[in-house]
Automatic annotation (TrEMBL):
Pfam families: RVT_1
Domain Reverse transcriptase: 11-94
Organism: Meganyctiphanes norvegica
Protein name per Swiss-Prot or TrEMBL: Reverse transcriptase domain-containing protein
Domain of life: Eukaryota
Organismal lineage: Eukaryota, Metazoa, Ecdysozoa, Arthropoda, Crustacea
InterPro entries hit by this protein: RT_dom
Length: 111
């Protein structure tokens, strides 16, 4: 309503990250962590947690063979949501830097 009442052009971008965690390349996350200033020790901890991991499926109380997880963050891991947000950060920074899209500052708020 604010943009309409103020005669401002605006758009809303809604991204549906279908199978979001399956699409997160962990090597890219390591690179982004470095670019965001996370130290080598911290990145090596994350690398240790997300390199060489395996998983299995349990269906009807039968456990499958273990298989490698090579390209994504793990479903159910408490760290995965934070890593997914970090994965998105370069996209958000590119949008802001493009100057085509600007944040809408609402009255009584910062953005």
């Amino acid at each position: 309503h604010y943009a309409n009442d103020s005669n401002l052009d605006f758009a809303v971008l809604n991204l549906d990250w279908y199978k979001a965690f399956d699409l997160v390349p962990v090597d890219f996350i390591f690179k982004v962590l470095h670019e965001l200033g996370f130290g080598d020790v911290f990145v090596s901890w994350i690398r240790t947690l997300y390199t060489g991991i395996e998983s299995a499926l349990e269906i009807n109380n039968i456990l499958s063979e273990f298989f490698p997880i090579n390209r994504s963050v793990r479903q159910g891991c408490p760290l995965s949501m934070s890593l997914f947000i970090i994965f998105q950060e370069p996209f958000y920074r590119a949008v802001v830097a493009s100057r085509v899209v600007r944040p809408l500052r609402l009255p009584d708020s910062t953005e």
